[in-house]
Fold these 4 entries.
Entry 1:
Amino acid sequence: MEEQEHEQGILNILDEMLNIVEGRNEQSKKARCDATPSLVNKKGKVNEHARQKLIDNINLMKTMLKEDNPSAEISYTIQLYTPHQVSTDSTKMFCECLAQILTVIKFQIVEEQASLQKHLPLLLVCPSVSRLEPSVDSALDGFKWDESFKVILLNFVTEKCLPAISSKMKVPLKPAYKNIEFIDMAFNKDDKLYECEMNNTALSKIMTFVETKRNEETMID
């Protein structure tokens, strides 16, 4: 069963890449309002959002193919921070599931800010409990980090109840959010980190984050 889900996940990513290249999302009347547009518009200009989505998907494909190789080694370490004021059994279960999916990454799960390491990239886990802004403010309460980082917004709902608009389109412009990129993810206790467009996109973004950080370190060295 897990092998079939893995293969289906790869097929879904390839379909999304074809959607971007062929412009299927723009042609479909049922496309979500935040669906990725065509890579090249009618005037021949490249859409940067679509280009980035292709890069994200390629990085995720590389990860999934590495997972098919038993000899694949862990390629990078990043911190998965669940602030103690928002940490629950569900957020802990999510962290464990994410580590089981992206096995080429070593996740250091941290609950106390004092235990964070400045030299390692950071993903902060924020459960979206009710309204978005109070949830984010609660997770970031007292948090200080000089480097850019990403916030994973957890939606504890089934696929049919997922929001149609991404969080980045709903987050207010506040100084505290200036260096943050928000990543939407879906999770529940029954289906865990289930297969859906939102999670595929999120996994792609995480892998691009890892590749970017690794390339930055290579340039410094």
Entry 2:
Amino acid sequence: MADHVQKVGRRPAARRWGSACAVVLGTGLAVTLAACATPASSSFTPKPIETITPSAPPTVSATPSEAPTSASATPTATQAKAVKATGTLAIYMTVTKKLAGTCRTVSGAPTITLADHDNEWYGTVDLTVVLDSSRSSVASIDGAFGEDSEGFTWKLGYSASDAAKGTSAALTTSGSSFTVSGKLTAKETRDGKTTTELLPYKITAKCAAGAW
């Protein structure tokens, strides 16, 4: 540690007592103050030596901090149980009899999800049918076909809350089987150009036994 010099005395330096030099040699060492100036007259009496012993720094007892309380894990929302489903789709004629997927309640809405990813006409066929909470009517239908032999891709849709003119979805149930028929919008896209028309359809879905 570098030395620190502090001037002390009753009056300003070089008056009667001269200047006093105090040298602090380090923490924990005594500090000695002595008169070190040239006397102003023959009657000069040196200032008595005063020894100052610094007091020890207060002892601070280290109290270990309390261990943080581990946060309780937020429970993961329980996923609704799903059961297997099979189905068919026809638009004018049969598109597929090999739909497979699940029946599950999602956010309170009974949802049937079906797909055929080895379809001879479109390569892929995907369908999602959402029912109302009582399972007595259709809330929405969304479908997508892959590219057909003429280069068209298809998007199919129906929404009960915002039904396009001419679209419909009649639901009949028998046990765990559901049949939906009517007309839906079909958007055909090729080379960046899209055409929209109404097409008749029929979807059947059979959910496996069990609550969903």
Entry 3:
Amino acid sequence: MSLFSKVAIRTIIAATGAAMLMSTGSASAMVPLQVMGAKPAPAGVAAAEKYFMICDVPTCPEPSYVSGWITWYARTVHISGRVSSAITPKTRWLQARFQAYAGGHQVGATQTRTAMASNGWGLDFAFDMGDPNLVGGVTMIRVTLCSPTSTGTTGCHAYPEEFVR
């Protein structure tokens, strides 16, 4: 995604209060794909946003990737975006796994979102992670991509991406 695309998305969020996923073509060919409602920050709490894109192969963002926004609140996070998988015999599906951490300890269950034939090889998502009662709150989100291996088992990237508050 080009710098212009990221700026355009941030501008749309600031103007409308909603996140809009855009196609990843040239800036002049950007097309809205879907509007997803943004969750407002709790009263009195400033939220910070972080954009992410993780690819299954070096030719990001195609053919398989997960992208979206992590919105940090005082103790929780809101994660929204899209996981997309290319239609090939090798990549029959692509799964994004999300884990929230506080002080090196996992908070809550791992969230998974999977793109496959039954959902048109792409899946938009939006969910919250963390514990609103946890002092200090979520400090890191780990995102791991997993897909089928040639032997039919599940293989996950050896080096997941980690995003720190």
Entry 4:
Amino acid sequence: MDQQKSISQPKRRETESDKEEDEDVDVGQLAESLKFVGISPNKSDDGKPPASGTSQHLSGGREKGKDELPSNQSSQPSTSEQPGPSGAEGGHDQQDRQNPKIKFLIQVPMWVPVPDKEHPKKNIMSQCQRLLDLLQDTGFNEEDRGHLEDVAIIIGLNGKHDPKLSGILEQLQKIKEKAKLKFEKVSFTWGPGGNIPYNREAVPYSRIREHLKNCEETKKLVRKLRGNDEECLVYFSFVDADTVDFNEVYSSYLQIVDTHVNTHKIPPTVMSTGYEFLEKEFQLASQIDREVRIRTADCFPLGTYYPEPNFCVLLPKAEETLPESFINTHSKAENMESPTLIRQVKKRSDIPFTALFPRGQPIITAVPPGIKLKKGEVTTQCHHDPFIWATSAYTHGELKYEPARGPKRFYNIRAYLMRLLTCDDEEFKKRCGEFSFTGPGVEQLKAAAQAWREYRRTLETGMKKVTEKGERTQPPEE
């Protein structure tokens, strides 16, 4: 498999905390403590991902900066049923089953730099073919390879407007890639003089995704996917260009949707299996992150962050693209794309809204620049960190806080939620009985906070056993 470094959209940190950095983690010690609590690495001894269908994937997601809270608080209750582990074993013959066919429209924004020493032109020109080959080789397990006919991918080649870049984009558009699946390429620029007007220094992440979602090429691919099958389920799958292994994630999604339809008679609206980092020193930390998200979502489906590099949204049957927007009209911020979209999606009236974050196969991705470890956690995104967990718990508008207005409101809410995780058991019980929150997520929040506390204790017990005794023991019963 070609694992050359991908030319992906420039990354920025998920949450910029004002807390001081702790010392870097001892990765070896962390590995031993995680074995104690039953978490295995996401790579085998030869450095390759384990075979699909295993229980080794307890991974973490990576998404854009969480530096604001939603202004839109209205919502309807969401369901919390999880379909259970989804290893996608045995394949899925959609012709023989009664459920609607499941199809995927994959959206990938791909940043294109002006060639230089760090970004050779040869690498830039080969990125689309690399991604197409990767999807064909690793998107499904062997039994499900026939489902490639039910997949389409659109690659959004983009960069900051520059006369030199225009020529590169034109050359990329002319390249004729080879692929067995349906695909389209579009190119556009952003910034002064670009296709997306933008006068700030930061990358306009939300506008890039919005532009790609709404372009005519996206709608064309949706029409091709549907064909004459008006009953098929089309999911918009959002993926980043720095994916290094799709890890048969779409076989997982097939099983997740099938299981939910068979159990609840409706398809899930939003779903994610997250992703794991490729680099060895970050693998275990990303597994802790994802395990926290899974446990949180099991209690409180919209109480965690659904990562932009791997999440799916069901397309309404009458639409050729998602009618909801990535752009937050109440804020100038260009991050938080996923929750901005989901806060609108959950208001749909066609079918009951359901969000799932189960233990399916995660996508494998590269660690973005600037990410560091502290206490075994990815500092800017790990939901094992109370700061990050508290921010995500509020981000989808499932909680209302009194007073509804006032100075430092965001910080007061986050501080309250953080304290809910870190206080002693007696104070936790008292706080749960004196909530200042209302809304559909209140009882779910209590259960999710308790799950976080229990998992943290499990991890701390494992680390303590390894540190004090220098040996592995049997994990504690939960």
